[in-house]
Amino acid sequence: MSAGRKGRFPLRLRRHPVAWTRQRPTWREARPAVIAAALKRAQARPSGNWYVVGATADVPRDRPLARTVAGREVVVWRDRAGRLVAGPGSCPHLGAPLGDSPVRCGTLICHWHGLALDGSGRAGWEPLPAHDDGVLVWVRLDDVGGESPREAPVVPARPALAGALCTVWTGFGVCEPEDVVANRLDPWHGAWFHPYSFVDLTVLDAPGPAGAGADGDGFAVDVSFKLAGRLVVPVRAVFTAPEPRTVVMRITEGEGVGSVVETHATPLGPDARGRPRTAVTEAVVAASDRPGFTAARALAPALRPLVRAAAGRLWRDDLAYAERRWLLRSTGRFPG
């Protein structure tokens, strides 16, 4: 793909499609040491102890959102002014689940005995730092993260939300956040593992085990998104990890330059069998300067479920990858 070139129409017809079994193998390029080194560098970056707990749209005015982060029950809601409030998800009185309680005029009212919480400390309940970036909501847990706290989370640069199409998908897997991040830092698996979505994938540049490549500490990829039959949308994208639990795919050439797909991994805590569970929150913030994109945004209520369904299909496979990676690591059989 030539830099800066964009045709009149975003779609292309694959003139000489290659069968899945005949595409070029990528296992030699997908060196375990390269993926492991990229993961290690991501884990060394500061997060400021911030964790994604859901989508902005998951926190309306009339009810809270509950999440468990690393075994800690957390509840978030909106105060009378619409600002995000967060704190422990267990009522300090007798331990009622505050996520099941209603919000009235910005006050969370415990449904067991009526303890009213307006976001200020009361009866042993103390608020937690919270942040709403317009797409996702975050909570800061200093005793969980153990890092030097930051005033705000590391939010990737995004297209202006007013002109973008935004969707958020959330799923859960038996693995740890590092297994999710490692999956996203392995772009070589795309056309092999997801042939229904990606074709003609080439990793142009990748950081070596010792550090950055030509595109910095990111993986530059040429890939075509498959629409139907031989119709595809070719783009160039770069994968980066701005903090330990986030990987961002940013389109740098082709249709939708500047659009991002953010993958955030949040540790939940062990399941009934003692296995770790992780929430995957994937935010798509798509933008385009084509006139037709305005019409697409007008159809956003109909398009968002389709985009979420596509993300869910991909993550059905990618969570299997992450879960398998954790299983092998936990039993001492992981070859990487």
TrEMBL record:
The keyword Iron applies. Keywords: 2Fe-2S, Iron, Iron-sulfur, Metal-binding, Oxidoreductase. It comes from the Bacteria. Residues 50-139 form the Rieske domain. InterPro entries: Cholesterol_7-desaturase, DUF5914, Rieske_2Fe-2S, Rieske_2Fe-2S_sf. PROSITE patterns: RIESKE. This is DUF5914 domain-containing protein. It comes from Streptomyces cinereospinus.
